[in-house]
Structures are given as structure tokens and as C-alpha cells.
């Protein structure tokens, strides 16, 4: 028994000396710092460096730490082997802790309380060049039950932290609740508001406000949002994104006050408002489909693989021509398809023109006075227009056709760079029949008539009229059988007046 008492007294004396050594000597506290470094590093799964340790008022302690060779932490409060109750000040040019990697300046103050296995953290300060308030519980390798509020933070710095594309620029306000956050788990919801934002790579001169809601469950995201600007609005609904499969989709509705506001993006000046809606999808290939009633009918479109396919139904030809700043000579309902290859800049079009009518213009007045043709009288319900455009060359076929009378422009080549035209034409209207070629400048094209065809037509017409017959060809055959001399006179019939009329007619179209 005496031996046991002696051993106990010796042990208590040794422990007392150790406590005195660690608590009352700087060398002892330095050695204890190494023990704390090892303890905290193992408990937090991070590399903790203790720069200074003050245990004079133990269990209250004061510690100066560095976490993972980056941010510094100044701690004051009570700590033991299992839990802490301390205030902290964390600051540095970068910060990493478990799965959190922050390559931004950080300056935060707050409080730590609870066991290391379920440490409750709250704080506030500056990060992402804005203000932040937060509270959460830190368990091994995870953060749970996090409430986060950020004010006026820079969006691109937040996106960089989240490892997302830096598509949007501006200051944002964020409120969120995160149930779980780790390297492999992310579940929660967030609201994001930006009073003034921009898309530098798309339209850096156009600012807008953004209001969006986001729900995330590990690798699946759902979102809705609205964008407002002085030029229009964009509403996103039923948005979904699957991170592993890299699949995204959403419905959209877009209103633009005036197309002229986006002339830099469209590379051409257009006019009037635009309302369209549709769906955006991404499954390895970006696809946009939608519909608009911009041109009085229904214009649907599909963008995929750098191609835009258009379907035209009951569109107003007048509205289309006015949009592209072309003179409106015809009214019609347009049906058909068009395709635009953005990479090769190729346009293909195949359309039908229903209920086509000529509008009353200087051209129709000139044709009426020159040739006696009333172009406003007929409806050309079997008309069509087919065209292809590449390298500044438009190749087209225009057929204005009523089924009885027509005006055709075929094998047409127009050069938008040199403003030249080369085309064949054929016209048959109200007793007049002309054919030939157009060539030269678009502003002042030259007309070359098919003389043999014109002579034949005029002979038939004039001879038929002379004998009161409509089929001049039959009359001519009878006359040939009677007199070779009379035939020679017919073949040399004067046509100069008709030629001048034809030139006037074709010039009226251009």
C-alpha cells in the first residue's frame, strides 16, 4: 500500500510539473503548440500551423494559426480536446478548407461553438469584393444547414469559385439555404438578384437586371428567371440542368422593343418589335427552337449545328420586304421553307406566294400608260420564289403566275458586292408577250429582247387582228401558201415601237 501511495504522489507531482511547464513557460507552450497543430490537423483534415499560443488563463486560450499555408486565423476563447467556444478573425489573400477553394481576398469575423465533429460556425465580413453573412454546421468533409446572404458581390468572382463559365458581369445579391455542401454533394436553393449586369462576350453595351431562383439536388438543377432591360425582357421557365449528363433545357419568352437596338449583334439594321417564345436544349449540341408572329403569319425556327431552319406559314410578303428595306411591289401570303448556314453563310429558300397582287406604284402606272396592261386587275395565286445566296451572289427564280398570265424572272444572278444583275425574263399579260434578258447595273439594268420570238408573236397578233382571228399562226400558214412575197413582208414587220415598250416595262421592275 505504501508503495502505491508513493507512486501516486510521484505521478501527481510529475503531472503538476508538466502543467506548470506547459501553462507557465513559453517553451512549454511552444511544445504544446506542436501537439495542438497535430491534433487540429487530424481533426479537421487540413494542415494547421500554430504561430503563437497563450494559455495563461486556461481553459481560455489565445491562438494565432495559418490554415493550409494561406489564410491566417486569430482565435480567442475556450477550447478542450472535444469542443471549442471561441471568437475568430480569418483573413488572407486566399483560403482553402476541405472542399472549399477560394482564390480571393477574405476578411471574416465570427464565432465557433461545439464539438469538432459538429462545429457550428457563424460570421460576417468581406469576400468577392462584397459583404457576406453566414451560419452553418461543419461536420467531417461536409457543411450542413448553411444560411448564406451575400450583398454586392462580383458575379465573375463567385462564378470562378463555383467553377462555372464567366458569362455574366456585375454585382449580385444572393440569399440561399444549403442543406448539404461538399465536394460530391450539393443540395439547397438560392435566389439571385442583379440590379445592373452585362454579358461581355455577347452584348457588353447592353445592361439589364436579373432575378432568378435556383434549386439544386446533387447533380440536378432547376431554375426560373427574368431579365429586364431598356431594350426588352427575357423570361425563363422550367429550366433544368443535369451536371453529370451535361444536359440542359428550358422554356423561354422573349420581347424586344426594337430590332434596331441589336443591330451590332445582327450585323444589319432591322426595324420593329419582336415577340417570340420556344425552348432551349443542350445535350452535347446546342439547340434553340421557337415561333413568332412578327410578319403577320407564323414563322417557326430551329437552330442546331450552326444551321437555322425556318418554316414560313401565311407570312406577309409586304412585311418581309419592308423589314429588309426592299421596295414593296407585291402583296402576297408566303408559305415555304428557308435555311441559313451560319458557318458558310449560305441561304436557301423555297416558297410559294399565294394571293399575290401588284401594288399601285409608279411602275404599274407606267406599264398601264405604255403597254395598256392593268397589272392591278389579276390575282397571281400560283406564284413562287426560290433562291440561294452565297459569297454575295443571289441565284433565284421568281414566277408571278395566275395560271393564265405570268411574269417570270429565271436564271437570275445578282451580285450584292458589285450591284450587277444577269437574268432571263418572260412575260405574257393581257395580249402582250415579251422575252429576253436583263443585265448590267441593278439601278439601271439593260434590256435585251428575244427578237425572233417577238417578231413571231407580233405577226400572229397583228395578222389575227386583221382577219378577225385569234390564231395568227394559222393565218400565217395560209398566207405562206398563197404568196412568197407576202411572207417576206410579214417577216420584216416593224417592231421598234414594241421594243421600246418592252424596255420601259422591264426597267419599271428595277
What are the defining features of this structure?
510 residues; alpha+beta; two-stranded antiparallel ribbon; 24% helix; 26-stranded antiparallel β-sheet; 28 strands
Fold topology:
Elements: H1 2-24, H2 26-44, E1 48-54, E2 60-67, E3 71-79, E4 83-92, E5 95-97, E6 100-102, E7 106-115, E8 119-127, E9 130-139, E10 142-154, H3 155-161, E11 169-181, E12 186-199, H4 200-203, E13 204-217, E14 220-229, E15 232-242, E16 247-256, H5 263-266, E17 274-282, E18 286-292, E19 298-304, E20 307-316, H6 317-323, E21 330-341, E22 346-358, H7 362-371, E23 383-390, E24 393-401, E25 406-415, E26 420-429, E27 432-441, E28 445-449, H8 451-467, H9 472-482, H10 484-491, H11 496-507
Helix pairs in contact: 1-2, 7-11, 8-9
Report what the structure shows.
By secondary structure, this protein is an alpha+beta fold. The protein has a domain at 23-127. It has helices spanning 2-24, 26-44, 155-161, 200-203, 263-266, 317-323, 362-371, 451-467, 472-482, 484-491, 496-507, and strands spanning 48-54, 60-67, 71-79, 83-92, 95-97, 100-102, 106-115, 119-127, 130-139, 142-154, 169-181, 186-199, 204-217, 220-229, 232-242, 247-256, 274-282, 286-292, 298-304, 307-316, 330-341, 346-358, 383-390, 393-401, 406-415, 420-429, 432-441, 445-449. The strands form 2 sheets. The chain has a 26-stranded antiparallel sheet, sandwiched between helices. A two-stranded antiparallel sheet has the order 5-6. Helix 1 packs across helix 2 and helix 8 crosses helix 9. The longest helix is centred in the first third of the chain and has 23 residues, at 2-24. The protein is rod-shaped. The model is unreliable at 1-33, 466-472, 482-487 and 489-496 (pLDDT under 50).
